[in-house]
Design brief:
The complex is a heterodimer of chains A (about 260) and B (about 350). Chain A is built from ten helices and ten strands. Chain A is an alpha/beta fold. Chain A folds into two domains: about 10-95 and about 160-255, 3-Layer(aba) Sandwich (Rossmann fold), CATH 3.40.50; about 100-155. In chain A, helix 3 (about 100-115) packs parallel to helix 6 and helix 6 (about 160-175) packs parallel to helix 7 (about 190-205). Chain B is mainly α and about 350 residues long. Chain B has helices at about 5-35, 40-55, 75-100, 105-125, 125-130, 150-175, 180-190, 190-195, 200-225, 235-250, 255-270, 285-305, 330-350, 350-355. The model of chain B is unreliable at about 330-355 (pLDDT under 50). Classes of the chains: A alpha/beta (about 260), B mainly alpha (about 350). The interface between A and B is large, with 55 and 46 residues.
Chain lengths: ~260, ~350
């Protein structure tokens, strides 16, 4: 297993501040995640975890601070530009494209910016057909790996909560990501699917992806994370291995009041 | 009703039906596929109609009896293209602020208010398109081919309208089934997720807004050359509502379903009542039409929100994957580990299997 510092970090968040009016949801957070590492973020409700994740994903514009990806400053990039640089994410409420089939969900992810291009769909239709064929083959692989083949033509809105989560993760994998952001990735998931998901998160990290995960279920945090950051009131109050942070006095106070 | 007046009426209905189907395809791209609640759609049809009118009315003179800007004479096809361009250009301008990322209900409100403001603006500033009286005496095109004062001309024009419909149907089907159409539907269902997968959502919306606007402009051009007149009453905001109901009833994101919906709403519920004997006070039938359309809207949403002919499911077989064996999902999942090898085999034979 990788220890922190073994590799140059893939994502570096430096003194990040996210404010909503007078409220500082994220108040000067500095963290980094290396390729192949799972960094778990825990903390009570309102600690600023989701805002931090949204700032890294580009959904929220930070008030100040820097976010570097592979050494490149991406602080001001829009979400779709960050996606093109290898960032994928899941959302707290699953974000499936409900009236697209599972397979189409994967195709949209596989084609990414090319899929949204009017030029590629019309004038560049030949190159697009090649990209689509590549994406379809990859989608077929992932459907087999996640045992969702029988559901491939099902509308995503007809899936169970756990299956939707699988589709989100598969969509992320379609993009061969460098950084995967997971917002409560096992919430509302049936136990057997949760187990499958946890195995997948480890496997994704093992393939060299940096994973930044918000999770409330401490058991999941313990099992999946290499390193844990504890947040409270917008700040990092502890950082280390799961066992280290759980012994920290500050963490006990934050959780138990 | 004499035979010739019935003939006249039928031809008119066929033309109006074609124009309404065109509009519905344009709005269906925007709303059905892209989720943009364009409550100002009719404004873009009006842009096309006014443009086509002033480009063929000729320069305004003291004897024109109406005031308008930029009057000139251009050939009919050029005027139609200009009508499309006007719809597209106005969409591009409005899209700059209306296609920003915002909640759909705000977007709907902005676009509806815009429709009201623009209509009022044209009512008030009579120098542009002659206010409420509107533009008249637009001459019928293709008069050198068919005598424009005959029903023969009307039927010829109806054929032209439907020929254009066929071309537009081909185009909207190609677009909506393409990867671009899929991305449109994806951002409709979850825009933040689409953006997080690399899709430029604002650009997508802007593109479909402009394409829909071009189709609206085209429909307006075709309409004004048939009616020979166009005024501010022709494009009240409620006209957009009728198109929305056509889409909701026929089939959201289904271009064939939209033809059916347009027939039911625009022909059966809007046109046919004109044939009914008048009853009650003057205008009661017209008012009841809108009551019925409102009820239809509510009924569609409550009973069959996907429309009579719903969005078509795109199966993975279309992309060369082998057909799914129709096994119950539970059984298939239980057998899955052992199937891994078999699956790869089937994938290898995908080309053959998909042609079966």
């Amino acid at each position: 297993m990788l220890a922190p510092g073994d590799l140059r970090p893939l994502v570096e968040v430096e003194d990040l501040v996210v404010s909503y009016g007078a409220v500082r949801a994220v108040d000067g957070v500095t963290i980094s995640v290396a390729p192949g590492e799972v960094l778990g973020i825990v903390g009570p409700n309102g600690a600023g975890k989701s805002s931090l994740l949204a700032a890294v994903g580009g959904q929220l514009r930070p008030t100040s601070g820097r976010i570097r990806l592979d050494g490149v400053d991406v602080t001001k990039l829009s979400p779709h530009r960050r996606a093109r640089r290898g960032v994928v994410r899941t959302f707290q409420d699953t974000s499936e494209f409900g009236r697209l089939t599972v397979f189409e969900n994967l195709l949209v992810a596989g084609l990414g910016m090319h899929g949204a291009s009017l030029y590629a769909a019309t004038v560049g239709a030949r190159a697009q057909a090649r990209r689509t064929a590549t994406a379809a083959a990859r989608a077929a692989e992932l459907l087999a790996r996640f045992e969702l083949e029988p559901m491939r033509d099902t509308y995503a809105m007809e899936l169970s909560g756990g299956q939707r989560r699988l589709v989100e993760v598969m969509r992320g994998l379609m993009r061969e990501p460098k950084l995967m952001l997971l917002d409560e990735p096992t919430v509302g998931v049936a136990p057997h699917l949760s187990e499958q998901l946890r195995r997948e998160y480890r496997r994704i990290a093992a393939s060299g992806v940096a994973v930044l995960m918000i999770e409330h279920v401490l058991e999941v945090v313990e099992e999946v994370s290499d390193r844990v950051v504890v947040m409270d009131n917008g700040s990092v109050i502890a950082e280390g291995t799961y066992d280290e942070v759980m012994q920290s006095q500050a963490v006990r106070e934050a959780y138990l009041g | 009703m004499s035979f010739s007046s019935l003939d006249f009426y039928l031809a008119t209905v066929v033309v109006i039906f074609g124009v309404d189907v065109l509009s519905a395809w344009g709005l269906n791209l925007q709303y059905g596929y892209a989720g943009i609640p364009n409550f100002s759609f009719i404004v873009f049809q009006a842009a096309g109609a006014y443009t086509a009118a002033i480009l063929t009315l000729g320069p305004m003179t003291a004897t024109s009896g109406q005031t308008y800007v930029a009057g000139t004479h251009v050939p009919f096809p050029v005027a139609l293209l200009a009508a499309m361009a006007a719809g597209a250009a106005l969409s591009a301008v409005i899209g700059v602020f209306a296609m920003k990322r915002m909640r759909a209900d705000y977007q709907a409100a902005i676009l509806l208010i815009l429709a009201l403001i623009l209509n009022q603006f044209i009512v008030t500033d009579t120098s542009l398109f002659n206010g409420t009286s509107g533009l008249a005496n637009v001459s019928r095109p293709l008069g050198s081919l068919v005598n424009p004062s005959t029903t023969g001309w009307q039927w010829a024009y109806a054929a032209l309208v439907w020929a254009i419909c066929a071309v537009v149907l081909f185009a909207v089907q190609r677009l909506s089934r393409s990867s671009w159409g899929r991305a449109l539907r994806a951002q409709r269902d979850h825009d933040a997720a689409a953006a997080a997968l690399g899709c430029n959502v604002v650009a997508l919306k802007m593109q479909v807004f402009v394409i829909g606007g071009a189709i609206a402009g085209l429909s307006g051009g075709l309409l004004v050359f048939y009616l020979q007149a166009f005024n501010t009453a022709s494009w009240g905001y409620e006209e957009t509502l009728a198109i929305f109901v056509s889409i909701l009833i026929g089939g959201v994101a289904n271009n064939w379903g939209v033809i059916l919906g347009t027939f039911l709403v625009q022909i059966v519920f809007v046109e046919v009542p004109n044939l009914l004997p008048q009853f009650g006070y003057i205008g009661l039938v017209d008012a009841l039409e809108w009551v019925v359309i409102g009820l239809l809207w509510m009924a569609a949403i409550a009973l069959r929100p996907q429309g009579v002919i719903p969005e078509r499911r795109v199966r993975a077989e279309r992309f060369g994957l082998p057909a799914l064996r129709r096994a119950p999902p539970v059984a298939a999942a239980a057998a899955a580990p052992g199937q891994q090898g078999a699956h790869e085999e089937r994938l290898g034979a995908a080309g053959g299997a998909s042609r079966r």
